[in-house]
Structures are given as C-alpha cells and as structure tokens.
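Notes for week 9. Today we move from apo structures to complexes. The key idea is that a small molecule is not decoration. When we ask for a structure prediction with magnesium ion present, the ligand SMILES becomes part of the input, just like the chain. The input block below holds both the sequence and the ligand string. Read it once before you look at the output, and try to guess where the molecule might sit.
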Amino acid sequence: MATVTNKKTTAKTTTRSNGASTNGKAKTSKTSKSKFSKETYLDWYEVMLRIRRFEEAALMSYGQQKIRGFLHVYIGQEAIAAGLKSALRHEDPIVTAYRQHGIGLMRGLTSDECMAELYGKFTGCVKGKGGSMHFFSKEHNYFGGNGIVGAQIPIGTGIGFAEKYKGTDNLCVTMFGDGASRQGALYESFNMAMAWKLPVLYIVENNHYGMGTSVERITNVTDIYKVGSAFDMPSEPVDGMDPESVHDALAKAAAHIRAGKGPYFLEIKTYRYKGHSVSDPGLYRSKEELKEYMDKDPIKVLESRILDNKIATEDEINAIKDAIKAEIKQALKFADESPWPPAEELYTDNYVQEDYPFIRD
Ligand SMILES: Cc1ncc(C[n+]2csc(CCOP(=O)(O)OP(=O)(O)O)c2C)c(N)n1
Ligand SMILES: [Mg+2]
C-alpha cells in the first residue's frame, strides 16, 4: 500500500503504482478469499475516502463563504472513481460533467491544488480560474468538467477520434449524468462513434435525478443503457455502489474498445446523498429513499468487506483514515494561505481570434 499523501510528487508515484496501468487487470497478488489484491482493495478505500473527506471539508468551507458559486459534490458516487482507477490506464483521457472533483482527485490531482482551486486561489489546478466545475490537467489526461449538460459528449467523442487518428490504443472515458442522456448531442455522438468505431467508453452515472427531476419523470425508458441498442452499441447496466462491479464492467468494456471494435456504453447506477448543488434542499425525494442508499454506503461496505475477509487489519484501515484526515486539514490550510491570482492573470489563458469572421462592426 502506498503511503497516503497530499504531496504532488508522491501522488504521481502512487498513481503509477496503484494498478491503473495494468491494462484493465487488477494486481496479481490476490488474497485467498478475495478476487482482487490487497493493494487494490486498499487503494480503492483510499481513493474513495479521500474524495468523501475532501468534499465534506469543501461543503464546510462553502458554509463559511470561503468557496463561492456552484459546488456539486460526488458524495455517494465514489465507487465509480475507484473502479475507474483500477480498471483503466492513466493515459486514457477522461472528460466529465460539473460533478467532477472526485474524478480529478482519483486521477492524481492533489488535495492541495483542488482545494485551492475551489477557493479561487492562484495555486489551484487551473490557477483559480476554473473553480468547482472546471478542473483540468494535461499531465493527468483529465479534460475536466463541463457546466453545459451533455456538452462533454461530443468533446469526448472528438478526443476518442484524436486517439484513433494518432494510432494509440487509449480510450476516452466520456462521463455524463442521467439528465444529459436525452440531449441531442448524445445521439449524434453515438451515431458517429459507431460509424467510425471510435475508442470511446461512454458512461452515464445514473444517480436517478437531474436538477430535481427524476429519471421516471422525463422518459419511459428508465434503463438508460438501452439507448445504446438503437446504435448497436454494446451497452450494459452496472452496480455503481460497488467498486468490484464497476471494475469488472470497465475492464470488459475497455478490452472490447482496445481491440478496435468501437465504443461501449455503461449505465452505472448510483446515488448522490447531497442535493444537486449546495442550494438544493432535495425536496423531490423521500428521507427513506436516501436512507436506503446510505445504508449501503460504498465506503462502509468496502471497509466491512476488507475487515470481515481479513484482507487488511483495522490498524491498516485506521492508518489510511488518519493520513487522509491530515491531508485534508493541510489542503484547507494551503487553500486559506494561498494568494489570489494577480490582476494581470485576467489577460492570460483567454481564447482570442482577431479576425473572427462572423462579427460585424
Ligand atoms: C444545456 C443545459 N441545460 C440546462 C442546464 C441546467 N442544469 C444544470 S445541471 C442539470 C441537471 C443535470 O442532471 P444530471 O445530468 O443527471 O447530473 P447530476 O447533477 O445528477 O450529476 C441541469 C438541467 C445546463 N447546465 N445546461
Ligand atoms: Mg443525475
């Protein structure tokens, strides 16, 4: 098990040594009772706990008005990030929606630079200019979040096209919510990806709700994976509360895509415990429904599985908990003490085209 750390240099090493580059296979040193190795279980636990604690801290800072604007948390959905880390390669690009801190942290962005980004500080992963919805990292092949629902679907399709054009065997993970799955952009992208056999792994994170509207209220086809069948795209449902299921489904899909057979569509069924964003009181769902999902919380279930099957000791679990606690405390301090972007930064990183032909004087 790699030591948990918030330091950028070590985080990189952790990323490379955690099984993410094993072509969809979990590590081989399996325990006798478990399908995956001890390292894989503990890495899943670490990834999921980091996301959970990071976002709990972010919600607290939001309440203190240290973070402003939008804040969409991933709490409840962390098993998806864990499966992505173990089943895919670090080289596989990922693009997703605005609920995206967890995917960035999983990819290797540090808690320090992510928290500073939420605070709008210059030390943030995109210099404080992106905030909660727009992390980005070329180094970690993370194309980050998109605020326009469904906008990332054609972008991910284009990234997949680029990978094929360059002759790599990487695939582009293109993630979106159930609310985006009825956008026209999805249908055009699916059609093009199948016609050109593009290496794209489409993932809908079906957490049952858009911005207060349930999936049942917007469609009669509530099993979203079935949409793929209109394009003959291989499509499957996945239990998103369990990293083992997520890993297995992703590894199978990745093998298909890397064999040059074209895209794959997974509907990962999950749940978010918090509202759509911090300002959402969640009046559209019952407390009983929320409790039902919290009872099968992916982090608690994984912790019990690790301990009950003696995959690791309580001391090892506690060491991870302590290290994550210290890491998040440090990230809050780092974000607090970091400087704001200097005024001249307003003039950098802007897209400017002087001869834009469609604007008249
Ligand atoms: C094109 C567009 N329409 C509407 C919105 C407003 N909006 C933001 S999030 C959202 C719901 C998206 O739900 P889902 O895709 O299920 O993602 P979740 O929030 O559940 O992760 C809506 C309608 C938007 N950002 N972009
Ligand atoms: Mg949703």
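The mean pLDDT is 91.
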